[in-house]
Amino acid sequence: MLPSAVLLRSARTDPGLSTASRAVDLTIENVPTQVWEVLGAILVLIFGWYVSKLVVRSVGRAIARQFQRPSITQTVLGGIRAGVIVVFVFIAARILQLDTGDVLLSGAVFGAVLGVILAPIVASVISGLFVLADQPFEIGDMIELVDEGQKGFVDDITLRYTKMFTLDNTFIVIPNSTIRDRDVINYSAEDERTRRTLELLVTYESDIEAARTLAERNARRVDDVISGGPDIRIGKTRFPAAPTCFIEEYADNGVLLLLRYWVEEPYKLQAIESEVKTNIWNDLDDADVEIAYPHTHLVFDETSGQAQVAVSQGDHSPAVTADSEAVPGDPSVESDGAQ
Protein backbone atom coordinates (compact mmCIF):
# COMPACT_ATOMS: atom_id res chain seq x y z
CA MET A 1 0.00 0.00 0.00
CA LEU A 2 1.28 3.49 -0.87
CA PRO A 3 2.37 5.80 1.96
CA SER A 4 -0.08 8.50 0.80
CA ALA A 5 -2.97 6.08 0.97
CA VAL A 6 -1.92 5.03 4.43
CA LEU A 7 -1.76 8.69 5.51
CA LEU A 8 -5.18 9.40 4.02
CA ARG A 9 -6.69 6.36 5.69
CA SER A 10 -5.09 7.32 8.98
CA ALA A 11 -6.50 10.83 8.71
CA ARG A 12 -9.98 9.44 8.19
CA THR A 13 -9.78 6.97 11.05
CA ASP A 14 -7.84 9.21 13.46
CA PRO A 15 -9.73 12.40 14.39
CA GLY A 16 -6.63 13.85 16.08
CA LEU A 17 -4.56 13.63 12.91
CA SER A 18 -7.31 15.24 10.89
CA THR A 19 -7.46 18.13 13.34
CA ALA A 20 -3.68 18.63 13.08
CA SER A 21 -3.85 18.72 9.28
CA ARG A 22 -6.59 21.33 9.38
CA ALA A 23 -4.52 23.38 11.81
CA VAL A 24 -1.52 23.28 9.48
CA ASP A 25 -3.70 24.33 6.55
CA LEU A 26 -5.11 27.24 8.54
CA THR A 27 -1.60 28.28 9.58
CA ILE A 28 -0.39 28.30 5.98
CA GLU A 29 -3.44 30.26 4.87
CA ASN A 30 -2.86 32.85 7.59
CA VAL A 31 0.77 33.53 6.51
CA PRO A 32 0.89 36.86 4.65
CA THR A 33 1.57 36.72 0.92
CA GLN A 34 4.56 39.03 1.32
CA VAL A 35 6.34 36.42 3.42
CA TRP A 36 6.03 33.83 0.68
CA GLU A 37 7.23 36.36 -1.87
CA VAL A 38 10.30 37.14 0.23
CA LEU A 39 11.07 33.45 0.70
CA GLY A 40 10.66 32.86 -3.02
CA ALA A 41 12.99 35.76 -3.84
CA ILE A 42 15.63 34.43 -1.44
CA LEU A 43 15.43 30.97 -3.01
CA VAL A 44 15.79 32.52 -6.48
CA LEU A 45 18.90 34.43 -5.40
CA ILE A 46 20.45 31.31 -3.88
CA PHE A 47 19.66 29.37 -7.04
CA GLY A 48 21.14 32.18 -9.14
CA TRP A 49 24.36 32.07 -7.08
CA TYR A 50 24.87 28.39 -7.85
CA VAL A 51 23.86 28.85 -11.50
CA SER A 52 26.48 31.59 -11.88
CA LYS A 53 29.17 29.23 -10.56
CA LEU A 54 27.99 26.52 -12.95
CA VAL A 55 28.07 28.91 -15.92
CA VAL A 56 31.59 30.08 -15.08
CA ARG A 57 32.77 26.51 -14.73
CA SER A 58 31.25 25.49 -18.07
CA VAL A 59 32.64 28.40 -20.13
CA GLY A 60 35.91 28.83 -18.25
CA ARG A 61 38.07 26.77 -20.61
CA ALA A 62 36.65 28.40 -23.71
CA ILE A 63 37.30 31.88 -22.27
CA ALA A 64 40.83 30.86 -21.27
CA ARG A 65 41.57 29.74 -24.83
CA GLN A 66 40.17 33.00 -26.18
CA PHE A 67 42.27 35.21 -23.91
CA GLN A 68 45.91 34.27 -23.40
CA ARG A 69 46.34 36.43 -20.30
CA PRO A 70 45.11 34.86 -17.03
CA SER A 71 44.21 38.25 -15.55
CA ILE A 72 41.89 39.07 -18.46
CA THR A 73 40.36 35.59 -18.25
CA GLN A 74 39.56 35.99 -14.57
CA THR A 75 38.09 39.46 -15.12
CA VAL A 76 35.84 38.25 -17.96
CA LEU A 77 34.65 35.25 -15.93
CA GLY A 78 33.93 37.54 -13.00
CA GLY A 79 31.87 39.78 -15.28
CA ILE A 80 29.90 36.78 -16.62
CA ARG A 81 29.15 35.60 -13.11
CA ALA A 82 28.06 39.08 -12.05
CA GLY A 83 25.78 39.31 -15.10
CA VAL A 84 24.08 36.00 -14.26
CA ILE A 85 23.53 37.14 -10.68
CA VAL A 86 22.04 40.44 -11.91
CA VAL A 87 19.53 38.52 -14.06
CA PHE A 88 18.36 36.53 -11.05
CA VAL A 89 18.19 39.73 -8.99
CA PHE A 90 15.70 41.11 -11.51
CA ILE A 91 13.74 37.85 -11.35
CA ALA A 92 13.63 38.15 -7.57
CA ALA A 93 12.47 41.76 -7.94
CA ARG A 94 9.61 40.61 -10.19
CA ILE A 95 8.62 38.03 -7.58
CA LEU A 96 8.49 40.83 -5.02
CA GLN A 97 6.32 42.77 -7.52
CA LEU A 98 8.84 45.57 -7.78
CA ASP A 99 8.83 47.73 -10.89
CA THR A 100 11.98 47.38 -13.00
CA GLY A 101 12.26 51.14 -13.36
CA ASP A 102 12.13 51.58 -9.60
CA VAL A 103 14.83 48.94 -9.19
CA LEU A 104 17.08 50.70 -11.71
CA LEU A 105 16.46 54.10 -10.12
CA SER A 106 17.14 52.77 -6.65
CA GLY A 107 20.28 51.06 -7.91
CA ALA A 108 21.47 54.27 -9.54
CA VAL A 109 20.89 56.32 -6.39
CA PHE A 110 22.49 53.67 -4.23
CA GLY A 111 25.45 53.49 -6.62
CA ALA A 112 25.90 57.26 -6.54
CA VAL A 113 25.95 57.26 -2.74
CA LEU A 114 28.43 54.41 -2.70
CA GLY A 115 30.53 56.22 -5.30
CA VAL A 116 30.94 59.17 -2.95
CA ILE A 117 31.61 57.04 0.11
CA LEU A 118 33.79 54.47 -1.58
CA ALA A 119 35.77 56.83 -3.83
CA PRO A 120 39.15 55.15 -3.07
CA ILE A 121 37.78 51.77 -4.08
CA VAL A 122 36.33 53.23 -7.26
CA ALA A 123 39.73 54.76 -8.03
CA SER A 124 41.34 51.34 -7.53
CA VAL A 125 38.82 49.76 -9.89
CA ILE A 126 39.51 52.34 -12.59
CA SER A 127 43.24 51.88 -12.09
CA GLY A 128 42.72 48.13 -12.33
CA LEU A 129 41.18 48.60 -15.76
CA PHE A 130 44.28 50.53 -16.84
CA VAL A 131 46.55 47.84 -15.40
CA LEU A 132 44.71 45.17 -17.36
CA ALA A 133 44.80 47.29 -20.52
CA ASP A 134 48.43 48.43 -20.28
CA GLN A 135 49.72 44.93 -19.40
CA PRO A 136 52.79 46.02 -17.38
CA PHE A 137 52.91 42.55 -15.80
CA GLU A 138 50.97 39.32 -15.76
CA ILE A 139 50.12 36.59 -13.28
CA GLY A 140 53.25 34.53 -12.69
CA ASP A 141 55.69 37.32 -13.61
CA MET A 142 58.55 38.20 -11.29
CA ILE A 143 58.46 41.92 -10.48
CA GLU A 144 60.28 44.33 -8.17
CA LEU A 145 58.86 47.36 -6.37
CA VAL A 146 61.75 49.79 -6.79
CA ASP A 147 60.83 52.12 -3.93
CA GLU A 148 60.75 49.25 -1.41
CA GLY A 149 63.22 46.87 -3.02
CA GLN A 150 60.67 44.05 -2.76
CA LYS A 151 60.85 41.23 -5.31
CA GLY A 152 58.23 38.59 -5.83
CA PHE A 153 55.78 36.84 -8.12
CA VAL A 154 52.41 38.22 -9.19
CA ASP A 155 49.76 35.88 -7.78
CA ASP A 156 46.55 37.62 -8.85
CA ILE A 157 45.35 40.77 -10.61
CA THR A 158 41.84 42.03 -9.93
CA LEU A 159 40.08 45.30 -10.63
CA ARG A 160 40.87 46.55 -7.11
CA TYR A 161 44.28 45.18 -6.17
CA THR A 162 47.31 43.16 -7.21
CA LYS A 163 48.58 40.28 -5.07
CA MET A 164 52.28 39.49 -4.90
CA PHE A 165 54.22 36.77 -3.10
CA THR A 166 57.70 38.00 -2.16
CA LEU A 167 60.86 35.91 -2.25
CA ASP A 168 60.70 35.88 1.57
CA ASN A 169 57.40 33.94 1.33
CA THR A 170 55.37 36.93 2.48
CA PHE A 171 52.13 38.15 0.95
CA ILE A 172 51.59 41.72 -0.27
CA VAL A 173 48.29 43.22 -1.44
CA ILE A 174 48.84 46.41 -3.45
CA PRO A 175 45.87 48.66 -4.39
CA ASN A 176 45.84 49.32 -8.12
CA SER A 177 45.42 53.04 -7.43
CA THR A 178 48.95 53.12 -5.98
CA ILE A 179 50.75 50.54 -8.11
CA ARG A 180 50.20 52.62 -11.26
CA ASP A 181 52.21 55.47 -9.69
CA ARG A 182 55.15 53.27 -8.62
CA ASP A 183 58.23 52.15 -10.53
CA VAL A 184 57.91 48.43 -11.18
CA ILE A 185 60.60 46.25 -12.77
CA ASN A 186 59.28 43.21 -14.62
CA TYR A 187 61.94 40.50 -14.87
CA SER A 188 59.71 38.07 -16.76
CA ALA A 189 58.37 40.29 -19.53
CA GLU A 190 58.70 38.53 -22.90
CA ASP A 191 62.35 37.44 -22.50
CA GLU A 192 63.38 36.07 -19.09
CA ARG A 193 67.09 36.47 -19.80
CA THR A 194 68.47 39.15 -17.49
CA ARG A 195 71.80 40.98 -17.66
CA ARG A 196 73.72 41.51 -14.45
CA THR A 197 76.65 43.80 -13.71
CA LEU A 198 79.49 43.20 -11.26
CA GLU A 199 82.11 45.84 -10.37
CA LEU A 200 85.66 44.69 -9.69
CA LEU A 201 88.38 47.09 -8.47
CA VAL A 202 91.97 45.88 -8.97
CA THR A 203 95.27 47.61 -8.22
CA TYR A 204 97.30 49.47 -10.82
CA GLU A 205 100.09 46.94 -10.33
CA SER A 206 97.82 44.07 -11.41
CA ASP A 207 97.76 42.50 -14.86
CA ILE A 208 94.62 44.18 -16.18
CA GLU A 209 94.17 41.85 -19.13
CA ALA A 210 94.56 38.82 -16.88
CA ALA A 211 92.00 40.30 -14.50
CA ARG A 212 89.46 40.72 -17.30
CA THR A 213 90.04 37.18 -18.56
CA LEU A 214 89.75 35.83 -15.00
CA ALA A 215 86.40 37.55 -14.43
CA GLU A 216 84.93 36.34 -17.74
CA ARG A 217 86.16 32.78 -17.22
CA ASN A 218 84.74 32.44 -13.73
CA ALA A 219 81.37 33.86 -14.77
CA ARG A 220 81.11 31.24 -17.53
CA ARG A 221 81.70 28.49 -14.96
CA VAL A 222 78.33 29.17 -13.28
CA ASP A 223 75.60 26.90 -14.61
CA ASP A 224 72.81 29.51 -14.90
CA VAL A 225 75.03 32.06 -16.67
CA ILE A 226 74.83 32.11 -20.47
CA SER A 227 78.33 31.19 -21.61
CA GLY A 228 77.97 32.07 -25.28
CA GLY A 229 75.84 31.88 -28.39
CA PRO A 230 74.13 34.40 -30.65
CA ASP A 231 74.01 38.02 -29.60
CA ILE A 232 71.03 39.07 -27.49
CA ARG A 233 68.97 41.81 -29.05
CA ILE A 234 67.37 44.58 -26.99
CA GLY A 235 65.53 47.04 -29.19
CA LYS A 236 67.91 47.96 -31.98
CA THR A 237 71.03 47.05 -30.02
CA ARG A 238 72.73 43.67 -29.83
CA PHE A 239 74.84 42.58 -26.86
CA PRO A 240 77.26 39.65 -26.61
CA ALA A 241 75.69 36.66 -24.92
CA ALA A 242 78.97 35.56 -23.31
CA PRO A 243 80.31 37.30 -20.18
CA THR A 244 82.30 40.41 -21.05
CA CYS A 245 84.57 42.48 -18.83
CA PHE A 246 85.28 46.14 -19.61
CA ILE A 247 87.53 48.81 -18.13
CA GLU A 248 85.04 51.21 -16.59
CA GLU A 249 87.26 53.80 -14.88
CA TYR A 250 90.76 54.62 -13.65
CA ALA A 251 89.69 55.26 -10.09
CA ASP A 252 91.62 56.73 -7.15
CA ASN A 253 92.51 53.39 -5.60
CA GLY A 254 92.73 51.19 -8.69
CA VAL A 255 91.29 50.23 -12.05
CA LEU A 256 87.52 49.68 -11.98
CA LEU A 257 86.44 46.73 -14.13
CA LEU A 258 82.85 46.08 -15.13
CA LEU A 259 81.79 42.46 -15.64
CA ARG A 260 78.53 41.98 -17.52
CA TYR A 261 76.91 38.58 -17.89
CA TRP A 262 73.49 37.19 -18.82
CA VAL A 263 71.38 34.93 -16.60
CA GLU A 264 68.91 32.51 -18.17
CA GLU A 265 66.16 33.09 -15.57
CA PRO A 266 65.74 35.92 -13.05
CA TYR A 267 64.64 33.78 -10.13
CA LYS A 268 67.98 33.23 -8.33
CA LEU A 269 69.91 36.38 -9.12
CA GLN A 270 71.48 36.81 -5.69
CA ALA A 271 72.66 33.19 -5.50
CA ILE A 272 74.14 33.37 -9.01
CA GLU A 273 75.96 36.63 -8.29
CA SER A 274 77.37 35.15 -5.08
CA GLU A 275 78.66 32.12 -6.98
CA VAL A 276 80.36 34.33 -9.58
CA LYS A 277 82.08 36.34 -6.83
CA THR A 278 83.17 33.15 -5.08
CA ASN A 279 84.72 31.75 -8.26
CA ILE A 280 86.63 34.97 -8.87
CA TRP A 281 87.91 35.10 -5.31
CA ASN A 282 89.11 31.50 -5.34
CA ASP A 283 90.96 32.07 -8.61
CA LEU A 284 92.89 35.15 -7.47
CA ASP A 285 95.71 33.17 -5.84
CA ASP A 286 96.93 31.81 -9.16
CA ALA A 287 96.80 35.12 -11.04
CA ASP A 288 98.78 38.33 -11.00
CA VAL A 289 95.71 40.20 -9.84
CA GLU A 290 95.14 41.96 -6.54
CA ILE A 291 91.90 43.44 -5.28
CA ALA A 292 92.37 47.12 -4.51
CA TYR A 293 91.32 48.78 -1.30
CA PRO A 294 91.82 52.32 0.00
CA HIS A 295 95.33 53.13 1.33
CA THR A 296 96.05 56.09 3.58
CA HIS A 297 99.54 57.67 3.83
CA LEU A 298 100.35 60.06 6.67
CA VAL A 299 103.07 62.62 5.80
CA PHE A 300 104.81 64.73 8.47
CA ASP A 301 107.07 67.64 7.56
CA GLU A 302 108.21 70.92 9.04
CA THR A 303 104.71 72.36 8.65
CA SER A 304 103.02 69.55 10.54
CA GLY A 305 103.94 70.71 14.04
CA GLN A 306 105.30 68.40 16.74
CA ALA A 307 104.26 64.83 17.34
CA GLN A 308 104.50 63.40 20.84
CA VAL A 309 105.99 59.89 20.54
CA ALA A 310 106.43 57.51 23.47
CA VAL A 311 108.29 54.20 23.30
CA SER A 312 108.09 51.91 26.28
CA GLN A 313 109.49 48.49 27.18
CA GLY A 314 108.22 46.75 30.27
CA ASP A 315 106.49 48.44 33.18
CA HIS A 316 109.44 50.61 34.34
CA SER A 317 110.88 51.85 31.03
CA PRO A 318 111.27 55.60 30.75
CA ALA A 319 109.19 57.40 28.14
CA VAL A 320 110.98 59.08 25.25
CA THR A 321 109.27 61.96 23.53
CA ALA A 322 110.13 64.04 20.54
CA ASP A 323 111.43 66.79 22.86
CA SER A 324 113.70 64.50 24.93
CA GLU A 325 117.28 63.58 24.07
CA ALA A 326 118.06 59.97 23.25
CA VAL A 327 120.83 58.38 25.35
CA PRO A 328 123.12 55.91 23.57
CA GLY A 329 122.74 52.38 24.84
CA ASP A 330 119.33 53.05 26.30
CA PRO A 331 117.33 49.83 25.74
CA SER A 332 114.08 51.77 25.50
CA VAL A 333 115.38 53.47 22.33
CA GLU A 334 117.42 50.73 20.74
CA SER A 335 114.80 47.94 20.98
CA ASP A 336 113.81 46.00 17.81
CA GLY A 337 113.75 48.80 15.30
CA ALA A 338 112.05 51.38 17.51
CA GLN A 339 114.37 54.27 16.69
UniProtKB/TrEMBL annotation:
Domain of life: Archaea
Domain Mechanosensitive ion channel MscS C-terminal residue range list: 202-291
Membrane topology: Multi-pass membrane protein
GO MF entry, a single one: mechanosensitive monoatomic ion channel activity
Domain called Mechanosensitive ion channel MscS: residue spans: 121-188
SUPFAM superfamilies: Mechanosensitive channel protein MscS (YggB), C-terminal domain, Mechanosensitive channel protein MscS (YggB), transmembrane region, Sm-like ribonucleoproteins
Region (Disordered): 311-339
Keywords, comma-separated and alphabetical: Cell membrane, Membrane, Transmembrane, Transmembrane helix
Subcellular location: Cell membrane
Any single Gene Ontology cellular-component annotation: plasma membrane
Name of the protein in its database record: Small-conductance mechanosensitive channel
Lineage of origin: Archaea, Methanobacteriati, Methanobacteriota, Stenosarchaea group, Halobacteria
